[in-house]
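User: Here's a protein and a ligand (zinc ion). What would the complex look like?
Assistant: Let me lay out the input and then the predicted complex.
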Amino acid sequence: MAELLERLEQGPVICAEGYLFELERRGYLQAGGFVPEVVLDHPEKVAELHREFVHAGSDVVEAFTYYAHREKLRLIGKEHLLQEINRQALGIAKEVASDRGALLAGNVCNTNVYGGEESREAVRRMFEEQVGWAVEAGVDFVIAETISWLGEALVATEVIKEAGLPAVVTLTAHKDPDMREGVSPADACKRLEAAGADVVGLNCSRGPRTILPLLEQVRDAVSVPVAALPVPYRTTEQQPSFQSLEDPLATGLPEDRPFPTALDPFTCNRYEISEFAREAYEMGVHYLGVCCGAAPHHIRAMAEALGRTPPASRYTADMSKHAYLGSDPTLKAENRDYAERL
Ligand SMILES: [Zn+2]
């Protein structure tokens, strides 16, 4: 049996995502187009982020081929880089994964070309070329993610299964959680399971609070392992997706919404991510991660919530040694007394 599925039988698997947002924040990727040219321009930055996520507890290194597809490259006039960008991203991920003993995942995502059955063949060709390069790189499995057309997700599943690899297929539920054909996420996941997907679930767009109720429905609808990779933002019932969040306190926003470059005030802290991981795991969701907005401290919190101690746990907070707020008996009483005035 494939290693991913074996690991899922034994316990949780953690997969850090969110490379676009984190590399954008670090100044190596442009918001808007969101094309991962960084794998060619600064491969060392991508490798470093892969390493940071594994150090923090990710079991998977996901090749950064998100939006490295024909349609996005056409949009920025660089279709000629398609093959190079994919091979390079896979090569970077492979090196880190083998170095750290992590699973290596290929990746495809929403093509932005799909619009119904008539676009099926065009989308299939796009998935086939990307999955082909992933197969050549020797990936352990392929992730198809952030897809909100069931039809498109079914094509991705077929292509991955035809390549002989396990398929992790995660749909994106937006403000209206239904797929664009009008099918519920739970029914869509059921169809994906029937089409051969090995793991099904949801990623991106919704934060922990607004993804959990949908996950419960997905879990009840399928018998394959379920995946959950929310964005680490405080979405609410009224504003359930990170695109729909409004910030009445923000001034000078270039767009009429905080998405995607002014979401900082909504970021979940690490304890909220711990709580999410525990709740999701108890609900029976065993493939867990964090999408756009994820940083290594979120992944470490998730790993620790699931009983792991990744290398980064060596530096997990220990406030007992804090000069003012600590409890260590050797601390100066005068400073500790001053604590309430901080
Ligand atoms: Zn995302």
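Summary: The two ends are 56 Å apart (CA to CA).
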